[in-house]
């Protein structure tokens, strides 16, 4: 295992975080907040420690899939630990478990909060909270690949470990250029949203926090009622942009650079929009039967469906009060998730499409046991490895889900709360139902449960295996084995 | 900021069809030079492995198909190189590519049926370059057999100048001598030879020597001389240079055919051992003057029966690298023949170098060198071809490049000793109208000359790159 390369990349990640921590300092300066000092301290420390760790660039720079996974998982854990320190130092979230929960929720773009009163936070802390969404959305390692010169083609393994989707590919031959293109599209869309929000006379600070939360499909609100208090225009803008950020970024690349036809032929995106339309339709009809008028019903339906399917988690209305069928639809959407290659979470639309096709293929084999059928996506046959990986992913997901629900059930809360709490965290959504509904928060859970949910959040964001491999004994045996051999040689 | 959009990209867009041994080597080298590569192959496993190793885009499909080429981005490509297994596929790929996009096309063509008509194919089908690695390998092997005490002979200026590599053995007068002293030593012996020592490898380090560099035994020395004087030079420093009189070849593939043809032409008698009966019959028709043996060349008894102990030279050309290595090592043990080994795959290069097998030819390297020479020259100016030849020396640690000087620059007309050159750059020779000039400080490079540079820097694309 190339431990020196892992060390080097971790150092770079800490340095990047240090640099990014300077932005809340600027916000603190604007608002004249004392808390900014702590951000400066942590920023400086991070830059220094990061520089020391990444001091020697290793000669052997080749990394394989296992190093990619370990690096990604460790980077994210380190990112979260460093990022939660300001909250503790400023005294706004004094307990370590709480601060870590909030930070992990930020970076993994979950948006589940343990804060009872969000508006009591300083501006710079609110800014940092929302900014972690923006960083975690596209990914910090993708950012690293875009800016830091790393030679060798094996760096695709970093991108594979961090980016969501059943099979991560490149847009252009070089990884560095692909990463830059992705970030360019990401930044472009964010700026577009910012402009439209400003046009809706939203206060500037709110604009940035909202844009960050939408872009990363995170969902941290800076108001206690999340998004319910904002004007209809603003709710529509955010709803549309949430949907846009849940679309596969490859489609934007095709639209911008190559061909429109290929963009509109993407099966996954079509499926995504069909699901949204269907869900909105059902909920809209149901809501019309209640006391609200049609325009509000449509707006609420679109906003909530968009928010849940893209796993953002903003709420414009207390959907805990909706009818049972609407709530079930929302819970199902939690699992579907957004498109692969976007900033959204969940199991991803393309995986479900492939899974459904696998079921179809299995049913076919009962009629014609000897038939051969290749599963196709976008007209191209999918390799067996990818299909197998998707099936295993789904099973692993379910095992992890069930275990988590089991572990947090010891606190004695009701099933719906436990179920949706895990669903909301492992799919990186934010709000659940009942005791963790849109008007409540996760402070109702004890410390042990919070750690379980933190594990779920990171697992969900990194798509399970990069995190699970850290806890898999053969990996450590692999690391230990190399060390002993080295010592023997010196003898 | 968006790299894909910006015009000032640092590399060319290259599509490679065929991910075999040559394809892999080519990918590795071109990625090293910083180009954007898309590689097409029918086999998904090969694409998977190449994309995991190198920073390239992979595509599974038939490279000659219009839709696959479009998907690979043929419209934006600068060059398509087709090195798949089948000659026909390669030619077809390039022909279609020429119609679809407007890129340069390079095809690998091995079959002697087509390679006889190379000129016609290039002209009519608009192919930029046709490479025949088997022919080139055979030519390189033939050059070594012409000068058997050399390790490697590379030719420049269409064969008029040669760069020869040899190892200084024990007890040779060169051991302990300064390079500058060599000229006086030779003139004392009554021979004035025009030569220039351009590179010395010692213990893994490559040096571009100045006059006071002291040579030692075990050094691998590369020198440049015109073709006629190369032999005289070797004789004068105590090397036997009599050409081999006969040659035993194991393996009857294309390389063997081309090599046998050249050797027979030079008057060297050839014996080929090939295990496939049908191929033996083919060879016996194609090479009537050679002795074709249908037998297992990896069998010690067969080799002894065919006179391995008495032969002057032995060339291992089977399709399996490991067999070739074992054959060569065996031949070195049982006879004093000059041995040449062909290695197709470039794995375990360090091990091969340590085995001290003498001359080794790498067909995939020959192909990639030719293509890189072209690619480097192309980056400079769209049409002109200002790199005549390019060789990688000492396992890519040094390069020998022959530049065509076709325009005035800061270099032309200035005496060499007044030019401020980079470190580790040597102007090895100047070819002016067919005359090979080994330059002293007073010589100048003029427009219309071809100048050969040896350097440890990589990536020179134009003659002016040698200036500091």
Could you give a short account of the major beta sheet of chain A? Answer: 2 strands, antiparallel
Rg from Cα of chain A:
22 Å
Apparent shape of chain A:
globular
Largest sheet of chain B: 6 strands, parallel
What is the average of the pLDDT values of chain A? Answer: 88
Stretches of chain B where pLDDT falls below 50 for ≥5 residues?
1-8
Helix share, percent of chain B: 25-40%
Description:
- The complex is a heterodimer of chains A (about 500) and B (about 475).
- Chain A has about 500 residues and is an all-alpha fold.
- Chain A has 21 helices and two strands.
- Chain A has a two-stranded antiparallel sheet with strand order 1-2.
- The longest helix of chain A is centred in the first third of the chain and has 29 residues, at about 5-30.
- Chain A is globular.
- With about 475 residues, chain B is of the alpha/beta class.
- Chain B has four domains: about 15-130, Rossmann fold, CATH 3.40.50; about 140-235, Regulator of K+ conductance, C-terminal domain (Alpha-Beta Plaits); about 245-360, NAD(P)-binding Rossmann-like Domain (Rossmann fold), CATH 3.40.50; about 375-465, 2-Layer Sandwich (Alpha-Beta Plaits).
- Chain B is built from 15 helices and 22 strands.
- In chain B, β1 (about 15), α1 and β2 (about 35-40) form a beta-alpha-beta unit.
- Chain B is globular, with a radius of gyration of 23 Å.
- The model of chain B is unreliable at about 1-10 (pLDDT under 50).
- Chains A and B meet through α8 of A and β2 and α2 of B.
């Amino acid at each position: 295992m190339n431990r020196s390369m892992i060390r080097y990349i971790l150092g770079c990640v800490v340095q990047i975080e240090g640099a990014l921590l300077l932005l809340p300092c600027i916000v603190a300066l604007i608002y004249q907040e004392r808390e900014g000092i702590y951000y400066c301290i942590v920023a400086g420390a991070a830059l220094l420690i990061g520089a020391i760790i990444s001091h020697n660039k290793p000669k052997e720079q080749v990394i394989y899939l296992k190093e990619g996974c370990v690096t990604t998982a460790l980077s994210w854990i380190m990112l979260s630990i460093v990022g939660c320190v300001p909250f503790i130092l400023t005294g706004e979230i004094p307990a370590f478990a709480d601060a870590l929960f909030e930070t992990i929720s930020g970076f993994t773009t979950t948006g589940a909060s343990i804060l009872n009163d969000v508006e009591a936070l300083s501006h710079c802390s609110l800014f940092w909270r929302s900014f972690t969404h923006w960083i975690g959305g596209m990914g910090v390692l993708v950012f690293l690949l875009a800016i830091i010169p790393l030679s060798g083609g094996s760096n695709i393994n970093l991108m594979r470990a961090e980016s969501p989707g059943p099979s991560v590919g490149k847009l252009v031959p070089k990884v560095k250029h692909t990463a830059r293109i992705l970030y360019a599209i990401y930044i472009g869309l964010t700026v577009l949203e910012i402009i439209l929000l400003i046009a809706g006379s939203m206060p500037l600070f709110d604009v940035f926090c909202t844009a960050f939360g939408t872009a990363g499909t995170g969902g941290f609100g800076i108001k206690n009622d999340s998004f319910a208090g904002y004007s209809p225009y603003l709710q529509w803008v955010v709803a549309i942009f949430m949907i846009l950020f849940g679309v596969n970024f490859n489609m934007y690349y095709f639209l911008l650079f190559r061909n429109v036809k290929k963009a509109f032929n993407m099966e996954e995106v079509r499926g995504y929009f069909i699901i949204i339309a269907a869900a909105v339709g059902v909920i809209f009809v149901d809501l019309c039967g209640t006391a609200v008028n049609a325009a509000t019903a449509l707006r609420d339906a679109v906003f909530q469906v968009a928010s849940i399917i893209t796993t953002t988690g903003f709420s414009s209305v207390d959907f805990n009060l909706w009818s049972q069928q609407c709530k079930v639809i929302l819970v199902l959407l939690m699992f579907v998730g957004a498109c692969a290659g976007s900033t959204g979470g969940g199991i991803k639309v393309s995986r479900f499409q492939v899974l459904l096709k696998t079921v179809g293929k299995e049913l076919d084999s009962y009629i014609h046991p000897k038939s051969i059928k290749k599963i196709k996506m976008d007209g191209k046959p999918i390799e067996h490895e990818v299909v197998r990986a998707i099936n295993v992913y789904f099973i692993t997901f379910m095992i992890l889900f069930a275990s988590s629900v089991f572990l947090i059930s010891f606190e004695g809360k009701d099933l719906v709360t436990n179920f949706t709490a895990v669903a909301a965290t492992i799919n990186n959504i934010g709000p659940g139902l009942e005791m963790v509904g849109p008007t409540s928060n996760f402070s109702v859970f004890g410390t042990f449960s919070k750690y379980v949910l933190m594990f779920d959040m990171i697992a969900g964001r990194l798509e399970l295996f990069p995190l699970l491999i850290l806890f898999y004994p053969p990996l450590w045996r692999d690391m230990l084995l190399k060390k002993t051999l080295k010592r023997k040689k010196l003898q | 900021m968006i790299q894909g959009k910006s015009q000032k990209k640092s590399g060319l867009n290259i599509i490679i069809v065929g991910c075999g041994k040559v394809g892999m080597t080519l990918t590795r080298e071109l990625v090293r030079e910083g180009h954007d590569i898309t590689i097409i192959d029918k086999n998904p496993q090969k694409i998977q492995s190449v994309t995991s190793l190198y920073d390239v885009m992979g595509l599974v499909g038939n490279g000659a198909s219009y839709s696959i080429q479009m998907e690979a981005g043929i419209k934006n490509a600068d060059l398509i190189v087709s090195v798949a297994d089948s000659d026909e596929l390669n030619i077809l790929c390039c022909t279609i590519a020429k119609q679809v996009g407007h890129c340069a096309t390079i095809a690998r063509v091995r079959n002697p049926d087509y390679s006889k008509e190379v000129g016609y194919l290039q002209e009519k089908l608009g192919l930029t370059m046709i490479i025949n690695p088997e022919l080139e390998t055979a030519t390189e092997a033939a050059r070594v057999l012409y000068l058997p005490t050399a390790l490697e002979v590379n030719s420049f200026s269409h064969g008029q100048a040669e760069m020869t590599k040899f190892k200084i053995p024990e007890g040779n007068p060169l051991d302990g001598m300064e390079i500058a002293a060599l000229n006086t030593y030779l003139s004392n012996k009554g021979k004035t030879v025009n030569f220039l020592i351009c590179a010395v490898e010692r213990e893994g380090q490559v040096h571009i020597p100045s006059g006071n560099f002291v040579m030692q035994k075990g050094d691998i020395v590369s020198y440049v001389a015109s073709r006629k004087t190369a032999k005289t030079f070797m004789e004068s420093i105590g090397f036997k240079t009599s050409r081999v009189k006969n040659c035993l070849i194991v393996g009857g593939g294309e390389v063997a055919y081309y090599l046998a043809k050249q050797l027979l032409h030079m008057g060297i008698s050839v014996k080929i051992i090939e295990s496939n009966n049908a191929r033996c019959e083919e060879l016996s028709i194609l090479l009537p003057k050679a002795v074709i043996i249908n037998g297992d060349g990896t069998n010690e008894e067969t080799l002894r029966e065919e006179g391995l102990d008495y032969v002057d030279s032995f060339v291992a050309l089977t399709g399996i690298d490991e067999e070739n290595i074992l054959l060569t090592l065996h031949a070195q043990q049982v006879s004093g023949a000059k041995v040449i080994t062909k290695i197709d795959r470039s794995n375990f290069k360090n091990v091969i170098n340590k085995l001290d097998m003498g001359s080794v030819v790498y067909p995939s390297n020959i192909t990639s060198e030719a293509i890189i020479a072209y690619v480097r020259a192309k980056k400079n100016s769209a049409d002109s071809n200002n790199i005549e030849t390019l060789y990688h020396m000492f396992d890519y640690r040094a390069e020998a490049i022959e530049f065509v000087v076709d325009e005035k620059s800061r270099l032309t007309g200035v005496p060499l000793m007044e030019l401020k050159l980079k470190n580790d750059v040597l102007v090895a020779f100047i070819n002016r109208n067919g005359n090979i000039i080994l330059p002293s400080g007073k010589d100048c490079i003029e427009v219309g000359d071809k100048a050969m540079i040896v350097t440890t820097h990589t990536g020179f694309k134009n003659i002016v790159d040698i200036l500091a």
